[in-house]
Write a structure and sequence with these properties.
Number of domains: 5
Distance between the termini: 20 Å
Strand content: 5-15%
Radius of gyration: 54 Å
Strand order of the largest sheet: 5-8-9-3-10-11
Helix content: 40-55%
Shape: elongated
Number of helices: 24
Length: 750
């Protein structure tokens, strides 16, 4: 597969005390995993010596090796990263200017610190006063906030924010009813349905000019004279209307004269009859109008909408009804006594008042109804009115708040302007120093980039500084100190060395290295590192791998990466998976190797390929690092000791059937030793009974298991390992997990 290399190492031959004439054909990116002591560092050191190069390897290709030797050469015990610098008059002038600006920067930083302390003091004083004021405002608005909580929900637990927001609103006292209804519409889940008040028509009641005029019968017939003498003409007329037109008198029962109707009609003059008919018709129309008014008022009384705390409509309606009943009574009196002079109460004024109140109610309902079409506007209007009302309730406290702010504004503004100016000057000096530093081709560039990497990774305990007694040398110092770090841990030391190595490879820190083709070798960089450093280091390694592979991707023909090839060695399984898992599918360019050592102290290195490669299928990688469960199966497949096999078999059964498949120990015991007892009968004389082996395997799976075999023990030395494996296979078959058994063994054989 080395024909994919666009320059680099095509072959490696190893002859060392533990490697005997071992040949390796590497790929573009090579991941090599092996435990400590297997020979990883030996292979790493051999790269560059006993190697074969491809024909198209660019001239001047350089091997960059990160290993213990690199750490010792580049990071001294006190943490110094030495370097060789090109000295010139231009660089001296640049460094002098850098020193001047650095002194100015330090002075400004001291001034910044002092000004910042004063500004903090002023802000703290203002903050305390404002917080006290905010609490007073919070207490003063408690009733309104409790009544309308949804309108200020965003400030439920923010006293200071509430007070600051309240100060922005104009104090206003009124609009309680508008607030109540807008709040109901904008925030409550129940939206009212409005039925508008009906109005009483002004021209509903008829008029009659005869009500205050005495009506007298002026007929001179004998019967009329008789009725006038008795004064009961109306009584007779009403009786005639009710019981007339009969052959007999309804009172005495005698037969009436044939001309009685003519005599009775003659007893009432024509004008009297006409006037009485007019009054009767008026009475009928008035009663009909009264019934219509009563129906309108009754319907309006049932309307639950009230725009005022003390509604006026019921009071006005009572007045109308009272006058109406009085007029009806007077009309009945006129009908009974036509001679009486009756004066009716005028209904216009009270009906106008009643209708005006109905119009007022309808107008409010219409506003509310219209607002329902745009609830957000109603909600915003309600919210603003509530803020204005709260501002009115605590206007004196808000005035004090404004006074506090104004009193402190001048002092604070002066300090803030000064602090801002100092900050800008510091930023300008830092930019100048950075620009000057970039123009010097020495390890100061590495110092700056590594410091930035440390800061970016959350390291604040140490940094790089220029060594006082050795110009152009840089040391690691702890925070708050200018002395070289004495207590740098081994993990920190390796981490810093790797950062320097990373920037050397990726950024070409050394003069003339910009175009040098590189072979990168990384030998176990994470020894003694904590998980955070290890994760960050892995991300940097992946970045270098990506840069290297970019050279070989057909879609990136313009890639200018100078990393030709990479070798990554590690004993740490987590680090190995972190750097290699993203590339496991790229079997064309990424090769996986495992280094191991036999009991005879012979090391070997093998490429890790999946099973299909052995049958002529497409090449695919296999990671040599297994997880804990896979390691159990590997031990199960490889061990030849019965005691170890029994132990690992128990672990597999517990891990898979108890923890993964959620069997209980009782269920397994019943299925295997009761329901399928015959499946474990011995098949040959002299063999340990399979039933005994099953009992032993199950004896410690569930501490609460009771039943046959849980206390059965026998000599493990007499058990053949293949017999145990036979029993394990039968267990998986009976529990219908044979496919899982075969799959896990296939992984071990890959």
């Amino acid at each position: 597969m080395t024909d994919t290399l666009m320059g680099g190492i095509s072959g490696l031959t190893l002859n060392t005390p533990t490697f005997h004439d071992v040949s390796v054909s590497p790929g573009v990116v090579n991941f090599i995993y092996g435990k400590n002591g297997t020979g990883k560092s030996t292979v790493a050191r051999a790269i560059g010596d006993a190697v074969e190069w491809t024909e198209n390897t660019p001239p001047g290709t350089k091997v960059f090796i990160y290993n213990e030797q690199y750490i010792n050469q580049n990071v001294q015990s006190y943490g110094r990263i030495p370097g060789v610098y090109s000295i010139s008059g231009e660089n001296v002038k640049i460094r002098q200017e850098m020193e001047e600006k650095t002194e100015q920067l330090e002075a400004l930083e001291r001034e910044e610190k002092e000004t910042g302390a004063k500004l903090s003091e002023v802000k703290n004083r203002i903050r305390d006063e404002m917080e006290s004021n905010s609490r007073a405002i919070w207490r003063a608005t408690s009733e309104i906030r409790t009544k309308y909580p949804k309108a200020i929900a965003e400030f439920e637990d923010d006293v200071d924010g509430f007070a600051a927001e309240l100060a922005k609103h104009e104090p206003k006292e009124d609009k309680f009813d508008q607030i109540r209804y807008d709040y109901q519409m904008g925030y409550e889940s129940r939206i009212p349905t409005y039925v508008f008040y009906k109005k009483v028509p002004y021209d509903l009641f008829p008029k009659c000019d005869l009500m205050d005029v005495p009506i007298i019968n002026r007929s001179d017939s004998a019967l009329a004279v008789f009725f006038r003498e008795l004064g009961n003409l109306e009584w007779a007329r009403k009786g005639h209307e009710a019981y007339g037109h009969q052959e007999k008198c309804p009172y005495c029962g005698q037969v009436l004269p044939r001309d009685f109707e003519e005599r009775f009609s003659a007893s009432i003059d024509e004008q009297y009859a006409r006037q009485m008919e007019e009054i009767a018709a008026f009475a009928t129309h008035y009663e009909q109008a009264a019934e219509q008014v009563k129906a309108i008022i009754t319907e309006n009384r049932q309307n639950k909408f009230r725009s005022l705390p003390k509604p006026q409509y019921p009071i006005l309606a009572d007045a109308v009804m009272e006058k109406l009943e009085g007029n009806l009574k007077k009309i009945r009196t006129k009908l009974e006594s036509p001679r009486a002079e009756v004066y009716l109460e005028k209904m216009d004024t009270c009906i106008q008042q009643l209708n005006r109140d109905a119009d007022s109610q309808n107008a409010v309902m219409k506003r509310h109804s219209d607002s329902l079409r745009d609830i957000p506007k109603a909600r915003e209007r309600c919210r603003e009115m509530i803020w204005q009302l709260m501002a009115f309730e605590c206007r004196e406290i808000l005035g004090l708040r404004k006074e506090i702010s104004g009193r402190s504004h001048g002092e604070r503004e002066t300090l803030e302007e000064k602090y801002q100016q100092i900050t800008e000057n510091i930023a300008g000096l830092k930019r100048n120093i950075e620009d000057l530093s970039k123009s010097v081709r020495d390890t100061s560039v590495a110092m700056e980039r590594i410091n930035a990497t440390l800061n970016g990774n959350g390291f604040t305990g140490f940094r790089f500084c220029e060594k006082a007694d050795e110009k152009n040398a840089y040391v690691l110092v702890r925070s708050g100190s200018i002395e070289p770090a004495q207590g740098l841990s081994e993990g920190e030391r390796k981490f810093v060395a790797f950062l320097y190595f990373y920037h050397t490879v990726m950024d070409s820190l050394q003069p003339g290295d910009e175009a040098v083709p590189k072979i990168v070798v990384i030998d176990d960089p994470v020894c003694s590192m904590d998980s955070e450093n290890m994760s960050f280091t892995a991300s940097l390694v992946r970045e270098m791998i990506g840069t290297c592979l970019g050279r070989y991707r057909s879609s990136e023909t313009g890639n200018t990466s100078n990393i030709l090839q990479m070798f990554c060695f590690t004993h740490n399984p987590y680090f190995f998976r972190w750097i290699s898992d993203p590339f496991v599918q790229n079997a064309e360019h990424c090769f996986y190797f495992e280094i191991s050592k036999s009991r005879e102290n012979i090391s070997r290195i093998e490429r890790c390929l999946a099973d299909e490669n052995k049958t002529g299928g497409k090449l695919s990688n296999r990671s040599p690092v297994l997880d804990e469960y896979q390691m159990m199966w590997k031990r199960f497949a490889e061990t030849g000791e019965a005691q170890e096999l029994i132990s690992v078999s128990r672990s597999i059964l517990c891990h898979y059937f108890i923890l993964t498949c959620h069997f209980t120990g009782r269920d397994i015991l019943r299925i295997l030793l009761d329901d399928n007892r015959d499946a474990f009968k011995s098949v040959e004389d002299g063999e340990t009974p399979a039933y005994n082996i099953v009992s032993s395997l199950l004896s410690l799976i569930d501490t609460e298991m009771k039943g046959p075999g849980t206390g059965m023990y026998f000599d493990m030395g007499a058990v053949e390992p293949d017999r145990v494996r036979f029993v394990m296979k039968r267990i998986f078959e009976i529990l219908k997990q044979e496919q899982h058994y075969n799959y896990m063994l296939s992984l071990c054989k890959a």
